[in-house]
Each structure stands twice: as C-alpha cells, then as structure tokens.
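[job 4471] stage=fold_predict status=RUNNING
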Amino acid sequence: MTSDGVNGRVALVTGGSRGLGLLIARELLGRGCLTTLNDRAAARFNQRPPFPG
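[job 4471] inference complete, writing structure tokens
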C-alpha cells in the first residue's frame, strides 16, 4: 500500500483496453484505486482479459 493519495479513490480510464490506458489502469489498481475502464472499441475487452487473474 502506498501513501500517494489514490488508495480508495475512484478513476475512469479511457482507452483502457490496450497501450498507455491499460498501463495506467493496472498501476492505479495496484495502488488500491477503484478503476473503471472505457474504450471506443468495447469488443477489445472481450478478446482477452485486461488484467491477470
């Protein structure tokens, strides 16, 4: 757990199915932030899970 202020906060990550958006979402989740992903091409989310597990 970190003390950077995102733990327990909420974030909306656009373009979250790949690239920089996916990296940002993973980092936020790892820091304890409740994260919602959005992408214009929603079908990308069905191709593979964006997060392990």
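[job 4471] summary: The two ends are 19 Å apart (CA to CA).
[job 4471] exit 0
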